[in-house]
Amino acid sequence: MSNLISLIGLILTSTLLYIVYRVVYNLYFHPLASFPGPLFRRASRIPWSLAVLRGTAVFDAANLHEKYGPVVRLAPNELAFQDPNAWRDIMGGGTSEIPKWIGMYGVPAFLPPHIQNTISKTYHRALRKALSPGFSDASLRAQEPMIAKYIDLMMQRLNLKSQQGPVNMELWYRYVVFDIICDLAVGESFQCLESDGLHPWIVAMVEGAKPMGFLTALNMYPTMATIINPLLGLVAQGNIRLHNEMVKPMVEKRLQVGDRPDLINPLIKLYRGQDANMDELIANATTIIGAGAETSASILTAVTSLLIDNPDKLSQLTAEVRSAFSSQDQITADAVSRLPYLVACIDEALRLFPQTGSPSLRITDRKTTIVGVPVPENTVVGIWPWALYRAPALWADPNEFHPERFLADSKYVNDAREAFKPFFTGSRDCIGQNLALIEMRLVLAHVVFRFDIKRTSDPNSKDWVHKQKNLFIVWDKGPLPVQLTPVV
Ligand code: HEM
Description:
It comes from Xylaria flabelliformis. There is one protein chain. The termini are far apart. Helix 8 runs antiparallel to helix 9 and helix 16 packs across helix 19. The protein has 21 helices and eleven strands. The protein has two domains: about 1-30; about 30-485, CATH 1.10.630.10. Strands 1-2-7-4 form a four-stranded mixed sheet. Strands 3-11-8 form a three-stranded antiparallel sheet. A two-stranded antiparallel ribbon has the order 5-6. It is globular and about 85 Å long. The chain is an alpha+beta fold and about 500 residues long. Protoporphyrin IX containing FE (HEM) binds near residues 291, 295 and 435.
């Protein structure tokens, strides 16, 4: 018994000594010891993880930049940069790009890697090369009639729904973008607009993504990651099976069709003749649909919420759209991209609600220099878009909705517009950015062309923007009920 007590005592004392050693090392001897940041953040990664659990990591990073300046030590081995030039130095593109950090992108380790999370440059290059033609201007132009078909259906359904009372635009935006992206990706729609409901696969995907921030935070501790990742693999088997059972039939059905101009076609060609390709095909299809739909739908919800909070700006947008078009069929991708106020409204929503408010964390593989600051090897580095886009030193009235800042208005002439990279930059930037912009501009133009939009008396509609909680890689958002009145 006394031996057991001595052993436990020894283990506890060694653990305590190790913790003290790590804290002292991190504070005084670590290569990043001279960088500013709060004591607890410099001593341990735990406060970083707690911020993720509380859903405040993104906002905390902004507050810490405000207190400590444009370069902050957020965790013992991690620096955050709030400087427009950091995009170039961290994601610059080509060989100068700092690689993605497995601590962030290695989750979930039990699923095959996909275009967004792979840290292999070779695998990424092959996927990106195969997928790029599907996102080219010519390809998007060819898809425009299909996009228009879903937006028309949305307008018809909203026309009907608006006569029955308030409409939750947060849902309707998701319906339309999921229907479009699923059709683009695998050649069939989720039929959300028709059924006025989210396909169970979407619900499973969104719910499944929520714990990812938590898992990612755990994965950032190397010892924990080696134990936890295999365990998670076992625990998640059931969910993976469920997910695959839902997506597999769609992918299999698609495989029967053969050659057709959708986004998954190049992947089918890439994997043709390889055995273990179904899981990778599913992982990539899921990523394209997930990355493409939730992001665009959220920005549409954000811009609608911001516009009804700012009636003068909504009037200006409405006037621009209604004077540019006399019928719905004139609202084309080319035409909406020539409406400066519409384009600026969406840009301003992207600035205020960057869809990955969280950073793309990278890790230096050699000594380097970022915004003129020497950074040692093995340092995790990132730009926190929420913090960068709301920095008082870089933007006038940073927390307010002013599309005018993108229209050369003299009040905003000193804004750091070069800091604004809603789709990031370099070889890992958003492959779907042109599609996203076209789709969001078209949907918003149609909505303001066809309807007068007002707040409902529902208190939920008032503070959509404040209801958001960042779960590190996904946002948790509330509904946006509005009153729509058809005008044409
Ligand atoms: C408002 C809409 C959108 C926003 C704000 C957005 C933003 C982003 C950002 C910031 C990244 C980089 C993420 C990272 O480094 O981890 C990214 C990557 C990606 N996005 Fe988007 N995105 C949007 C729409 C779309 C659409 C419509 C699609 C496709 C249908 C798409 C597909 C992807 C893919 C596949 C990647 C990974 C690219 C790679 O690593 O090569 N996104 N997106």
